[in-house]
Design a protein that fits this description.
This protein is an alpha/beta fold. The chain has 13 helices and twelve strands. The chain starts with 5 loop residues before the first helix and ends in a 26-residue tail after the last strand. The protein is elongated and about 80 Å long. The chain folds into three domains: 43 residues, lambda repressor-like DNA-binding domains (434 Repressor (Amino-terminal Domain), Orthogonal Bundle), CATH 1.10.260.40; 133 residues, Rossmann fold, CATH 3.40.50.2300; 130 residues, Response regulator (Rossmann fold). Helix 1 crosses helix 2 and helix 1 crosses helix 3. Helix 5 links the parallel strand 1 and strand 2.
Amino acid sequence: MRNPTIKDVAKSSGVSLKTVSRVINREASVRADTREKVERTIEALGYQPNPSARGLRSTHAYAIGLVYDNPNAHYVISMQEGVLSACRERGFGLQIHPCDSSSPALARELCALVERNRLAGLVLAPPMSEQHELVSTLSKHGIDFVRIISSREDPHDGSPCVYVDDRSAAYAITEHLIQLGHKRIGFLWGEPHHRSSPERYQGYADALKDYGIVQDKKLVLPGRYAFDDGFRGARKLLALKDPPTAIFGSNDEIAAGVLAAARSSGLDVPWDLSIAGFEDSPFSKQAWPALTTARQSTGEIGRHAALHLMADLQRENGEGFAEPSNECFVPELVVRGSTAPPKNNTPKTAAPRAGQPRKA
């Protein structure tokens, strides 16, 4: 069976093609009863507007772009699926655009992308979303966008965003390890130009401080969000004279590398070494034992960022009135088999140091 066309919708509704087009484009000139009749017909027939043709017929663009630079395939796929679900829900097309976030020509590249493909706006994933110069250039060129950023609170900086509270989630992971009885907890960074890396480190550092544990700088190593860096970093930490009893990797790929390093050293996880990651990617579920981590709803984050962008566009076109508010996501602690009390240590119900309440 062929897909229904706009002509089928017009015929079944008893209205003109122009009226159907006006309903699809959400023009205010259509009477409420006519709009309702056409929308019921569209739903009954399962008609899907063609975003490209729709954009050519209208003064408004009906496709958006997702811009990312991330080597983590799980993150990229989840983000794409989330943004795409919002596009399907609102009848928008989607242009996927991987890029090099370090390119000096990135701003020109994205401006050309929007113009060439007649995009209504962009969803910016980290780290592009956290580059102030890039954001400023896009704003100066009148390009609509929504950023996905790592932040403990709404930045209120005039640029729309969806923000992820990595710091509080990292605090919860570190607190979990402390309450199991661990005092020597290693930390492996991701890329420093991703704001999530310093935010996750700060959550780790805050938890140690609040529980009165002096941080040993030898237990903190730089790196990337990659399996190999987790493996190499763990081998360095485990070779210390006084090695950690637990290691917190800034993402699940790093934590999976730590697990491989522990196995290669003949350690029994979690009894010889506890391991925690971040994001709840397939690495965390497929590892043995499964990894304690922080569940980050990447797909939902992408979906809400796209809906935020579309709401902004609708408001600019006179179809919406209230300015959408920035949304916060807090990754949730997921405790699995990779963490346990250290050997020869009975876990105690630890509490933050007096005068320093637990951070939210």
